[in-house]
Amino acid sequence: MNQLTKRKQLIKDWIYEAADKSKQSFNQTINIEEKTNRTDLVTNIDKEIEQFFIEKINAHFPDERILGEEGSGHQFTDLKGVVWVIDPIDGTLNFVKQQYDFAIMVSVYKDGVGYLGYIYDVMKNELYFASKNQGAYLNDKPLKKVEDTPLREGLVAISHRLMTSKINDDAREIGRASSGVRMIGSAGLETTRVATGKLVAYIGASLAPWDIGAGKVIAEELGLIYTQLNGEEIDMLKYNKTIVATPSAHKEIRMNYISKTEK
Amino acid sequence: MNQLTKRKQLIKDWIYEAADKSKQSFNQTINIEEKTNRTDLVTNIDKEIEQFFIEKINAHFPDERILGEEGSGHQFTDLKGVVWVIDPIDGTLNFVKQQYDFAIMVSVYKDGVGYLGYIYDVMKNELYFASKNQGAYLNDKPLKKVEDTPLREGLVAISHRLMTSKINDDAREIGRASSGVRMIGSAGLETTRVATGKLVAYIGASLAPWDIGAGKVIAEELGLIYTQLNGEEIDMLKYNKTIVATPSAHKEIRMNYISKTEK
After folding, report:
1. Within this chain, do residues A20 and A74 fall inside the same structural domain, yes or no?
2. Fewest CB atoms less than 10 Å from the CB: which of A12, A107, A215, A221?
3. Model pTM greater than 0.90?
């Protein structure tokens, strides 16, 4: 990828500028719309931040394509060439209700392989970053490879939809087999907790490429496994039921706790 | 209560000193024991911090009794006089597994009524404090009364035990009726999220007086309702199934989502 050092500096600058926009909005009236249902929200701030990234990327890297949550990027049928994956606000429900526990996520893929991943926890001022084969960092401090803790000895994060399911007890079964369930409500931040060894697994009900892109680069750089829940590779062109976990917890969850229909 | 100004300053000093002890332990090998089961833990740090508070209180307020989680305080059959309620580390499982999302909690009751309540989020350096009829504060900044948001429009925190129950779907029903479930794993920190309007309710499966004492003083000062899940007053001499919530969410949850056996 060309201009890598400059590219990394630009992305950091853009993320911090976008974070300022998100925080400034706390003093404004924001416009909230429902997308697929009343808990799937989008605000004018999500849209403005996505637009901000698109303008910056177009100005500096006009030949590269952009896959963004709010749909103002390009349409995709393949992942050839360099693709930017943007989640302007991950955890929009938290952004609206808590003004806390939301993240800005950016990643850069080349021919379907993740090269750069950024998750910025805005309210904690924690920037998680990884570059393929170059390690992962929290605010420029190297992160250690994650210990391979088994499910029984660790905490797990599981999405609201799976934990409250009326028809499927699998997620709760995993929770009962673990040390305990935690639910943050941001795929990015839940992934950073696995990446720092706080949790041994995070299971997402239906994650889009922009929910996954950055976290996958960071997680894999730290020895974690990030796949679909059935063990297949992530498909960056569709929604995925996901697991990111230590190798032990990943294996145990797939082997013991996923209904046959999932396999 | 005598020496109120001095008492408040002492408590703050002790909490910060105790927090330093908890953080220093991250560089040491800590001794972890199971209490009632493998997810109910106690460490030597919980015990040392409780002992630290007991020594300080005995030195400054020798006539006052102490109710502490780790049992090194007094035995109680009533709440007459001044009673200190101490949770040296709330969220011990988080302390051990995440080194994050745990709190030090202190409260002072007189004849069963809470007068002072402190919840210190150690890793975020956030000290929540309330004094009966004198308001509640976060790091000395006054907190606003909480808006009376209904269940449908808010996030709720629910304990692991209730969310993963095999036999009772009530908790999940509440989750589905809300905007979403969040699980932090510290009764104190979940209560501070209700106290700052981030959540509309927190439901605890089986909270002891030391899990409740400080949070109840803070919550009530901000217009929230803190009771047993069946609506009865908290009993500070036993374990309680609890709810702390906005008035609207409290009413709705009690009326619509608690099985008849609970009422």
Report:
1. yes
2. A12
3. yes
For residue A221, give the CATH number of its domain: 3.40.190.80
In chain B, residues with a C-beta closer than 8 Å to the C-beta of A182 are 183-185
Q: Tell me how crowded residue A67 is: count the other CB atoms within 10 A of its CB.
A: 23
Count the neighbouring beta carbons within 10 Å of the beta carbon of residue A145.
Answer: 12
Does residue B104 share a domain with residue B169? no
On whether residue A23 sits in a domain, the answer given is yes
Question: What's A109's domain CATH number?
Answer: 3.30.540.10
- CA atoms lying within 13 Å on the CB side of residue A21: 21
Closest by CA to B54, choosing from B22, B83, B96, is: B83
Q: Are residues A44 and A76 in the same domain?
A: yes
- Best B94, B160, B193 member to test A by mutation, with max A CBs in 10 Å, is B160
Domain contains A263:
no
Question: What is the CB-side half-sphere exposure of residue B136 using CA atoms within 13 A?
Answer: 26
CB contact under 8 A, A182 and B180: no
With CB atoms and an 8 Å threshold, state whether B181 touches A164.
Answer: yes
Q: What angle do the packed helices B247-256 and B170-177 form, to 10 degrees?
A: 130
Domain count, chain A: 2
Give backbone dihedrals phi and psi of A40, rounded to 5 degrees, phi first: -110, 95
What pLDDT tens digit does each residue of chain A (263 aa) get? 668 999 999 999 999 999 999 999 998 889 999 888 888 888 999 999 999 999 999 999 999 999 988 776 677 889 999 999 999 999 999 999 999 999 999 999 999 999 999 999 999 999 999 999 999 999 999 999 999 999 999 999 999 999 999 988 999 999 999 999 999 999 999 999 999 999 999 999 999 999 999 999 999 999 999 999 999 999 999 999 999 999 999 999 998 877 655 54
What DSSP letter does each residue of A74-94 carry, written as one string?
A: ---S---SEEEEEEEEE-HHH
User: Domain check: are B64 and B194 in the same one?
Assistant: no
Q: How far is A63 from chain B (nearest CA, A)?
A: 40
Tokens representing residue A39 in the block: 């808990």
What's the domain range around B239?
151-262
Nearest beta carbon to residue B182 from set A164, A176, A184: A184
Phi-psi group of A214: left, alpha or beta (phi > 0 → left; psi -120 to 50 → alpha; rest → beta): alpha
Q: Do the Cβ atoms of B88 and B53 come closer than 8 Å?
A: yes
